[in-house]
Amino acid sequence: MPTFSLAVSFLRYFFGAVSAHGLHSPFMYRLMTEAVDCSTSDSQVQAPLALRRQLLGDRSLIEVDDLGGGSRHTPGNTRVVKQLALHSGRQPRTGKLLYRLVRHFQPEIVVELGTSLGIGTLFLKEAAPQARIITIEGSGEVATLARRNISQFGASDVEVVHGAFAEVLTPGFIANLKPSLVVFDGDHREAPTLDYFDRFARHATNDTVFIFDDIHWSPGMEKAWDAIRADERVKVTADLFTFGLVFFRKELSRQHFVLRNRDCF
Ligand SMILES: C[S@@+](CC[C@H](N)C(=O)[O-])C[C@H]1O[C@@H](n2cnc3c(N)ncnc32)[C@H](O)[C@@H]1O
């Protein structure tokens, strides 16, 4: 996204965001005070931080298949692992927020769309150690390396599935899994994002939580986020600028929140 459009999106977010004091919904107030507005020490998320440090020193080459929105940084299909970790892997600050969000909801079954090298997956594992975690990656070499990385840091029970989302995410696959929490961090384009949202929304239960990454990344992602907020199945959404959260809880009144995420201020 051009810097100017991103700046406009951020200013809109900045002036619209409310703190915990401005929230009347007990559900949102708890989310803010128990997850968003907290801090996380490095010792709580040692494994993903250690993996990231290790990968940032790795100068070997890896082949990637461009299945999603592409890279803003590097053309072509060959990447240095270090660059992939830097540009495509979860950054510590958003990883810690993701960790707090997932820890707050304590899901039993987590699906992550887009594994890359497995840094984000390890944040999920730290947050919900008892959960069944399935992560999907379309690039073969990347999936193989991610599987090795994740096992190296003690999470060999995480299931790394290699395949394109459009092929892996059949109605049977989703219905069998019944995920309680889904992290959408793969294909950052409007139409595919809405397609994957719809596939999971068809099987969402009252407690299902969706976390969308990079909802303001591009005009297409802005449009996708607007369409998700307008979807009749959705009861409540929360815009944290870096993440968009989606809830289906029937007991909540339909509302769309813009929450002050202190990492952005
Ligand atoms: C931003 S990275 C994921 C980062 C990772 N979740 C983390 O937190 O470290 C996105 C990944 O999704 C994969 N991807 C993109 N589109 C895909 C698709 N349609 N099917 C399968 N994988 C896809 C890419 O290969 C890339 O590795």
What keywords describe this structure?
265 residues; alpha/beta; two-stranded antiparallel sheet; binds S-adenosylmethionine; 8-stranded mixed β-sheet; Rossmann fold
Walk me through what this model shows.
With about 260 residues, this protein is α/β, with parallel strands linked by helices. The chain has one domain (about 5-265): Vaccinia Virus protein VP39 (Rossmann fold, 3-Layer(aba) Sandwich). About 45% of the residues lie in helices and about 15% in strands. It has eleven helices and ten strands. The protein has helices at about 5-15, 25-35, 45-55, 80-85, 90-105, 120-125, 140-150, 165-170, 170-175, 190-200, 220-230, and strands at about 60-65, 80, 110-115, 130-135, 160, 180-185, 210-215, 235-240, 245, 255-260. It has an eight-stranded mixed beta sheet with strand order 5-4-3-6-7-9-8-10, sandwiched between helices. A two-stranded antiparallel ribbon has the order 1-2. The mean pLDDT is about 95. Bound molecules: S-adenosylmethionine (SAM). S-adenosylmethionine binds near residues 89 and 187.
